[in-house]
Amino acid sequence: MDRSDATAHKKRTFRKFSYRGVDLEQLLDISSEEFMKMVTCRARRKFKRGLKRKPMGLIKKLRIAKQQAPENEKPAAVKTHLRSMIIVPEMIGSIIGIYNGKTFNQVEIKPEMIGHYLGEFSMTYKPVKHGRPGMGATHSSRFIPLK
């Protein structure tokens, strides 16, 4: 009887997100220098060399979109060509339209994406769907019967 009561009242627990041992609430509060120490060496080098005007402009647009969004609503999408921008904790919850060379793919930034590039979430090519071999595939495909 004991065991069935324990399983009936046990609430479902979700895995708490942490980036390199630091949980999400602390990530949002730490300074950019502290965050810089946590990321990979490639991202660290990029931050060390300074964020230029365009990446800072994107972060400002994301801040504005979050402020203008109604309570408990998703913010408006912000379009960008900056595929090389590294996702920082401040971007979490934003919706970004990432250009793939043809269209803007809308991506909602989640905590698991921290430290990755924006371009990783917007594919620039369409995966190959292999079908029947077409013209020029092999020498035998040159022969086309005339019915």
- The share of residues in extended strands comes to 5-15%
Query: Would you identify the regions where 5 or more consecutive residues have pLDDT less than 50?
Result: none
How far apart are the termini?
Answer: 78 Å
Count of runs of 4 or more consecutive helical residues? 5
Q: Tally the beta strands.
A: 5
Strand order across the largest sheet: 3-4-5
Mean of residue pLDDT values: 85
The major sheet is characterized as: 3 strands, mixed
Give the C-alpha Rg. 23 Å
Keywords:
single chain, 147 residues, 3-stranded mixed β-sheet, two-stranded antiparallel sheet
Describe the protein's architecture and organization.
The chain is an alpha+beta fold. The protein contains five helices and five strands, in the order H-E-E-H-H-H-H-E-E-E. It has helices spanning 2-9, 24-29, 32-38, 41-48, 53-68; strands at residues 18-19, 22-23, 78-80, 95-99, 104-108. A hairpin with a 2-residue loop joins strand 1 and strand 2.
Brief sketch in words of this structure:
With 147 residues, this protein is of the alpha+beta class. It has helices spanning 2-9, 24-29, 32-38, 41-48, 53-68; strands at 18-19, 22-23, 78-80, 95-99, 104-108.
Q: In terms of topology, how is this protein built?
A:
Layout: H1 2-9, E1 18-19, E2 22-23, H2 24-29, H3 32-38, H4 41-48, H5 53-68, E3 78-80, E4 95-99, E5 104-108
Parallel strand pairs: 3-4
Antiparallel strand pairs: 1-2, 4-5
